[in-house]
Amino acid sequence: xxxxxxxxxxxxxxxxxxxxxxxYVTCVRWKPDATKHIVSGRYGTTKLWDSTVCKLVSSxxxxxxxxxxxxxxxxxxxxxxxxxVLHWDVRTPETLHRPFSATSGIICGLDWxxxxxxxxxxxxxxxxxxFRNTSLRDSETLTMVYQSAVKAIAxxxxxxxxxATGSGQNDQRVVVWDLISGNYKNCIDTKSQVxxxxxxxxxxxxxxxxxxxxxxxRLWELKKQC
Length: 226
Description:
Structural class: mainly beta
Radius of gyration: 17 Å
Number of helices: 0
Strand content: over 45%
Order of helices and strands: EEEEEEEEEEEEEEEEEEEE
């Protein structure tokens, strides 16, 4: 496996800091068509922004949202601090589907697969759970146990059923699962807490971000098997 490093500079922000309740951002996620994005703050305010003009479109207040992901261009799922997942239809901001309980702790990571059928949920109870969607009435299908909380989760956009997970300080691994066969394909000892990951849309590579004493981005090419 090979790695390279890179640095990104943040040059623009749309978010005013005048309100004390906003404090800091807990998660950000682009809408699939890149016209809007979701931003959640420490005290439970989730905002939908028009990315083209930096304009606030709508907002929702709930228990603190620590993770979010889009199922499609209309439905966004919010992973909350009370262990529940809430589905929000942004076409009608008042439409909130009944939340379902995924864990007794905090939901750290969320990601829908490319078909919008399976939702991967990472929790601070050291588990990743896979929920099968049936008209938003979710049922658990699989649970994977780690040695640390799992915040970084991403489905491979090129291979159906392939999921990458990145765990925290006590585990420090990226594990790539083939959930169709039930086996894992690759594992990487990053030697650092994994805070985020994303797949390349065109090849078998992924980028990881890290925390604490390793605030870098790393590029991995997955060749070796575990």
